[in-house]
């Protein structure tokens, strides 16, 4: 194995290949919390051709390869293998072009999402993908996990923004699929195979992303509702009143909002407690019309009893304050300690049942536990974060996962809404996908990666083969 790292270094140089023993600790893990692992070698290629050369050598030698982006994943998809190498895409960080006529951005997989967002804004356009890790996640990882985020209700998941991809297959073959046209039905849409595949079928090196007109106006409201039924009725009313102006609809139940607003010291914009809290964001092309439409929605919703109280931001500072608690999950370690996080999808009609049932089941099993619930309800996404105080760092992860994922399965939901499967959800993939579907996934893997070197043991790889 050591000889292989030396062989790679002789071919590509010490600037590209770092052997075990000299690999910085940041490449030993992602955000998942799994025990750090130092890989056999770290590769930091500077071009697609270097990625291809590395994969060709690994394919010939049967050496496992784990691709890494910004290392912000929480499912273990970028966690290293001790007997394999890591390929970091961070040097493929060039924005090649922005076409304002076609509304496209062409960039390398290592471009940080926030950098791409700012480049689009500088050109008077909008990249509609937005997630909390925008300042460190990279485009390749965003696409490989089909990331979601706060604006899915308006712009869709990551795959909805992709026009073209350049991908390197396991044997080093470069797939040039950098389509820039919105309409292109010449055969199968091969890029969809790689979006959301978590690096198990190929490594994304470049992409063409669709851009949108940049709405210059934004209006934000924070409201309190009596219960989840009122929240869902408010969602219907918001869609009807705002139409395409509705860019975010974020819900926080008291388990999350009341605890985090107090624990972080951020407080609440509202004087009294409520059964649920909602952030509604509207974007448009006329500031007065955008704000007045949101104000009218609020007034109508209040008259109909959908809303108990609420405030509208009057400045960017106030807007940031309304979002502050929703964007506070980075504080979990400080205010909660170790947590067991869930990113699940639930049919909207069952959202109240899900929040109530999951919370009650966790309390029944662990009376002192906290189960914080929040999410992007408009796209059926529910986040649940569990902490059992007396367990300390030895949280009952396996038992809580069995409990929560079993309930999600019984409700016809999905065990992964926007963070992928990685290593931590493999045992539960069959809760959401049939044996036929998993068999097809494994069939694609066998075709594109016959030696199984790409991110082995991640996502669907090996599921159902035992």
Automatic annotation (TrEMBL):
Keywords: FAD, Flavoprotein, Oxidoreductase. Signal peptide: none annotated. PROSITE patterns: FAD_PCMH. Pfam families: FAD-oxidase_C (PF02913), FAD_binding_4 (PF01565). Residues 34-214 form the FAD-binding PCMH-type domain. Its cofactor is FAD. One of its GO terms (molecular function) is oxidoreductase activity. InterPro entries: FAD-bd_oxidored_4_C, FAD-bd_PCMH, FAD-bd_PCMH-like_sf, FAD-bd_PCMH_sub1, FAD-bd_PCMH_sub2, FAD-linked_Oxase-like_C, FAD-oxidored/transferase_4, Oxid_FAD_bind_N. GO terms for biological process: respiratory electron transport chain. PANTHER family: D-2-HYDROXYGLUTARATE DEHYDROGENASE, MITOCHONDRIAL (PTHR43716:SF1). Belongs to the FAD-binding oxidoreductase/transferase type 4 family. This is FAD-binding oxidoreductase. It comes from Pseudooceanicola lipolyticus.
């Amino acid at each position: 194995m050591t000889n292989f790292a030396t062989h790679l270094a002789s071919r590509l140089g010490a600037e590209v290949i770092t052997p075990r023993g000299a690999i910085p600790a940041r490449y030993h893990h992602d955000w998942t919390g799994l025990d750090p692992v130092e890989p056999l070698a770290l590769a930091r290629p500077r071009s697609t051709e270097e990625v291809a050369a590395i994969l060709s050598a690994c394919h010939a030698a049967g050496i496992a390869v784990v691709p890494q982006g910004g290392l912000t994943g929480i499912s273990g998809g970028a966690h290293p293998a001790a007997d394999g190498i890591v390929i970091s895409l961070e040097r493929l960080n060039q924005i090649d072009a922005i076409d304002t006529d076609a509304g496209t951005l062409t960039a390398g997989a290592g471009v940080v999402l926030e950098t791409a967002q700012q480049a689009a804004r500088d050109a008077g356009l909008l990249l509609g993908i937005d997630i909390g890790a925008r300042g460190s996640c990279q485009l390749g990882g965003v696409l490989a996990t089909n990331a979601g985020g706060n604006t899915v209700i308006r712009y869709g998941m990551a795959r909805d923004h992709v026009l073209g991809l350049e991908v390197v297959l396991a044997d080093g073959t470069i797939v040039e699929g950098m389509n820039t046209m919105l309409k292109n039905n010449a055969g199968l849409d091969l890029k969809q195979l790689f979006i959301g595949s978590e690096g198990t079928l190929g490594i994304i090196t470049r992409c063409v992303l669709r851009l949108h007109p940049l709405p210059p106006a934004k209006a934000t409201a924070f409201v309190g509702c009596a219960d989840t039924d009122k929240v869902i009725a408010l969602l219907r009313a918001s869609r009807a009143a705002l139409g395409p102006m509705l860019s975010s609809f974020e819900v926080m139940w008291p388990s999350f909002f009341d605890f985090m607003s107090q624990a972080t010291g951020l407080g609440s914009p509202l004087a009294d407690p409520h059964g649920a809290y909602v952030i509604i964001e509207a974007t448009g092309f006329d500031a007065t019309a955008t704000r007045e439409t949101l104000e009218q929605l609020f007034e109508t919703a209040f008259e109909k009893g959908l809303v108990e109280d609420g405030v509208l931001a009057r400045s960017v500072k106030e807007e940031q304050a309304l979002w502050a608690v929703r964007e506070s999950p980075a504080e979990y370690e400080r205010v909660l300690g170790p947590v067991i996080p869930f990113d699940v999808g639930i049919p909207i009609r069952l959202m109240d049942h899900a929040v109530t049932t999951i919370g009650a089941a966790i309390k029944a099993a662990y009376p002192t536990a906290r189960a914080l619930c929040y999410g992007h309800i408009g796209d059926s996404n529910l986040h649940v974060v569990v902490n059992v105080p007396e367990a300390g760092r030895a949280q009952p992860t396996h038992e809580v996962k069995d409990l929560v994922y079993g309930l999600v399965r019984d409700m016809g939901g999905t065990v992964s809404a926007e963070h992928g499967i990685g290593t931590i959800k493999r045992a539960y993939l069959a809760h959401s996908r049939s044996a036929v579907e998993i068999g097809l996934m494994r069939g694609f893997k066998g075709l594109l990666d016959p030696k199984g070197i790409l991110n082995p043991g991640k996502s669907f790889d090996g599921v159902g083969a035992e």
